[in-house]
Amino acid sequence: MKKALNAILLIVMTLVLAGTAPCAAQNVSGTITCAGVGVADVAVSDGSVVVLTDANGHYSFTSDKRSGYVFFSLPSGYEPIVSHGFSPLFWTPFTSSDPAEHEVHEFTLRRVDNDKHIVIFGADTHLARRLNDINMFRTGLLVSLNEEVERAGDVPVYSVLLGDLTWDVFWYQNDYTLTHFMADMRFLNYPVMLWPVIGNHDHDPSIPASDATDWDSAALWRKTMGPNYYSFNLGKVHYVVLDDIVYLNSYSPNEDYADGVVGNRNYRGAITDEQMEWLKKDLALIDRHTPLVVCMHIPAWSMTSSFGYSGRLDNTYPLCALLNEFDNVHIMSGHTHSNYTIRPTVYSHITEHNIAATSGSLWWTASLTGYHICQDGAPAGYLRWTASGDVVQWHFKPIHEGDSQVRLYDMNTVKDFYRTNSAMRGILRDYPSRVNYGNITDNTVMFNVFGYNTKWKIDICEGEKRLTWTRVYTEDPFHTLTYDVPRYAAVGYYSTSYTTNNSTHLFRAQATTSDQPITVRLIDEFGNIYLKSINRPHPYSLEMEKAETTPTVGDVNGDGNVNVADINLVIGYLLGDALQRCPLLLLADCNGDNSINVADVNVMISKIINN
Fold it and tell me: What is the pTM of this model?
């Protein structure tokens, strides 16, 4: 009998120990609360394990503690506590690297109605204490962010910086690392919540090449900025931040490196296997109908010279195959300092927005001429993303040029400059691969549509005649004026790293005269209409955009206002009067449906009433 009791006791003890063993192994735990009440179903992770909080907001899991932190995926309808007014506290470092030590981490949320919200996507700030960049950042992007907040009213505004916040070669040369970046953001009162993305220039170049280089070179990022990949929810949109840099920093024995730099600062573009596994777990918790925004530095796709696309990352296709399981996917990227939009036909649910740099051409054009221009001719700017429930829209916003969406070129004056300007002649001689607009056909006109994608509609008129346009892959003439010419004129050469690139959003039309005005109308995929006109000859100079005019939609008679006289002209046209002149047709088509009808009259009446 005693042996039987002992046997039963042994079985019971074994079962008890078996039941409690997993709990004993869970070395990370805590609670996520709002106003003292636990928040359920919040995803918590260490970059590998992903668990959900229970009904009381409690979480626990077993971590190898390799990442050095624990973080949560912000649930919809909440915001995290922020540090210094802009840095979200959605993560915290582990107190010990020893997996045998249990630790507890509590997080606090606050309720916010962010079903409707705005996200400002900027890229490539490249702050490095050079060329007066900190001051230009302060008077540029920071001013724009404050304007966005004021404009938004009660709608929450957030920001995502898509990598290259700093510039690795200057970490030691100018003593400017991520630590200094964050100190500057605190000093400058960065005005909105910042969700950061790691870029290739945000890695430590003092880490020598080895199997651990990628991990070790991102140590300061993980300590200062937070996780290098994570997710959060705003309203009905799920946002994911990925690290697509595999930093190599290969050593070349004959290379002369800057102070603190021990390699070539080179890298591969790829999503690591560890991230892909975490991403699968993260997305498994999200309904496939939820709009999905994936933020990373290097774009998944490159645009070709024929305006097609090719995969840019080592694993673009496996990544996009996973993402394409969602109905509405947007990839936000930077790195190229150019604007382009790609909708890869092989993944019909995905749109990638590669966004122009907030630093323009690494602050060079602004330093040389005061104009912040990227190498594709787009102005330094950002993408304004607006979500209302699960309906999303976007808009490219220049930082220093109001809301301009297009720049027009009278190529006759460009041609003359290329033929007669001494600095330009020197550039064409010393850099023979450059496009020579001195040979362009007479009476050509060109225009750069900064935020163009294939869903936009374009019309161009010469006087009263509608022209046919062609999309061309070539150099933007204005960037040549703002970088190549002044730098070459000063020292007789320039760095080809910052020179004018071929743009994917330039257009050309052949006019028949040299003196008739040119009008361009753009209609984006959301029905917004943008107009721009030039009189010819139109100057080719740094001040050229000041000579452009921006007609008002509905101002058919061109007197500067939408009024009854304009309505009378449209009604007369509908009754059979002649209103065939091309610019007037563009102005009278107020709703952008490429016809003039009663709906346009209604828009004009609304404009008059609202004014």
Answer: 0.93
Euclidean distance between CA atoms 471 and 303, whole angstroms? 14
Q: Choose among 250, 281, 287: nearest CA to 268.
A: 250
Quote the domain boundaries for residue 419.
406-547
CA 389, CA 78: separation in Å to the nearest integer?
15
The DSSP secondary structure of 174-227, one letter per residue, reads S---HHHHHHHHHHTT--SEEEE---GGGS-TTSPSSTTHHHHHTHHHHHHT--
The CA–CA distances, whole Å, from 149 to 116, 228, 400, 550 equal 14, 27, 17, 26
Gap between the Cα atoms of 509 and 460, Å rounded: 8
Do 198 and 76 fall into the same domain? no
Q: What does DSSP assign to residue 591? A: T
Cα–Cα distance, 386 to 426 (Å, whole number): 46
Give the whole-angstrom CA distance, residue 352 versus residue 334: 10
Q: Are residues 459 and 599 in the same domain?
A: no
Task: Tell me how far apart the 2 most distant CA atoms of the chain are, in Å.
Answer: 114
Residue 514: partners with Cβ closer than 8 Å, 6 or more residues away: 412, 442, 443, 536, 537
Q: Which amino acid is at 564?
A: V
| 451 and 357 share one domain | no
DSSP lists the bridge partners of residue 122 as 161
At position 534, the amino acid (one-letter code) is I
Tokens 């605190």 -> residue: 186
Q: Is 291 a domain residue?
A: yes
The DSSP bridge pattern shows strands 391-398 and 82-83 to be unpaired
The answer on 182 and 97 residing in a single domain is no
Alpha helices in 370-522 (DSSP H): 411-420, 422-430, 477-479, 485-491
Q: What one-letter code names the amino acid at 202?
A: D
Given the structure tokens 């907001």, which residue do they identify?
57
Helical pair 422-430 and 411-420, crossing angle rounded to 10 deg: 80
Question: At residue 598, what are phi and psi to the nearest 5 degrees?
Answer: -60, -30
Please state the domain count of the chain: 4
For 456-506, what is each residue's pLDDT tens digit? 999 999 998 999 999 999 999 999 999 999 999 999 999 999 999 999 999
Least confident of 374-383, 440-449, 511-520, 575-584: 575-584
* Two structure tokens written together for 284: 């498994």
Contacts of 174 (CB under 8 A, 6+ apart): 128, 129, 130
**75 plus 171 within the same structural domain:** no
Task: Find the CATH number of the domain harbouring 45.
Answer: 2.60.40.1120
- Per the domain annotation, does 572 fall within a domain? yes
